Request: fold
Amino acid sequence: MPKVAIITDSNSGISQAQAKELGIYVVPMPFTIDEVEYKEDINLSQEQFFKMLTSGSEISTSMPALGDLAILFNQVLESYDEIVYLPMSSGLSSSYEASTIFAQENYPDTVYVVNNQRISVSLKSDVFDALKLVNQGKTGKEIKELLEENKFNSTIYIMVETLTYLKKGGRITPAAASIAGLLKIKPILSIYGEKLDLFSKTRTVSKAYKIMLEAVMKDINRINPDGNPDTIYIGIAHTNNLEGAKKMEQLARVYFPNYEFIIDNLSLSIACHIGPGSVGFGCMKKTNV
Reply:
């Protein structure tokens, strides 16, 4: 039975300290802010990031350098036989594609890159499941296959507080943002599979929470028709809006009293495109339960 290590990236919301507690490894996502290079949770905290974001700093994201991955893979393989690497969704970054080609060329049958199309709390839930599969004695290849079979059984909905950053990133036109701002419209985005799309829109936070709750109820009925709460994670994530996340949690626990919750900061890679104040809500089916 091979000894299998789990590696993810900081888009999972798992900090370096938490990684040590879990016995895994986290690749820090790189950011360029006002032409200075940063790495998440190494020399860039959540507080620093949002301070610079809201002060108008120019922020861009990129994928982890393959050279850095090689150093980490080599280090980990000194103690392990195989690696399962869970990067952020292939639909939101080229990280999966690049690391897959790199692993196939340099670490065949040793490093297994998972295309689970998840991010934030949904990626974190897959890390938890991967650890359970390791403890069950699964090989790296088996873990990759099981996680990928389950990848579409996950959805996240995100209420966006401000349109400023969507406009800045070119995801909506300035005219549309201006009209929506005047009408105080709050868009609700969805992350399902490879896509980040507009799901709905409303004018109040309370209505947005209700829309997300109803959507998650439908998703749970789809992915969990037997109604067993032990097979589902409920996820709540936010961009510098812990108060809003707690309100969402308080409401959600009334409807999902017996479910396991994962509550965390939304990935900074998403936060730089949607800005502060957002609240995400979703569900993820557990793998191999």
The first strand starts at residue 4 and ends at 9. Confidence is low (pLDDT under 50) at residues 169-183. The chain has three domains: 4-28+64-149, 30-62, 154-285. The CA atoms of residues 166 and 274 lie 6 Å apart.
